[in-house]
Amino acid sequence: MLESVQAEVMMSFLVSEELSFRIPVELRYEMRDPYAVRMTFHLPGDAPVTWAFGRELLLDGLGRPSGDGDVHVSPAEPDNLSDVHIRLQVGGDRALFRAGAAPLVAFLDRTDKLVPLGQERALGEFEVHLEEALGRILAEEQSAG
To answer: What is the pTM of this model?
Structure first.
């Protein structure tokens, strides 16, 4: 049985208004942690960095500004939903990425086929391993910082 969904999406890393470069970003969703998606950013010259955050945050951010913590997702332009900004923040450090909405929608659609949105609690195995999953997320966030 399929237990995860993966995709690679090219995103623009927006360093400043004048400078950006395209990087591959691996998206991953796993049944064992059905509320989260993981994005692994492959920045040139650095070790890959993985961020885990709510699948619902990514979905909501496709259509309207979303997020109130270290991760914010929003349409790049209010009247045009074709691109999405993903802003990640650790302390005073920020990174801004721009991605096409279409590959993110395709990825989220595949995650929904694996675990329909709103049905995450039906996975009894997740409830049993909740503490383990939270520990993994916290460890990933600490290693990313």
So the answer is: 0.80
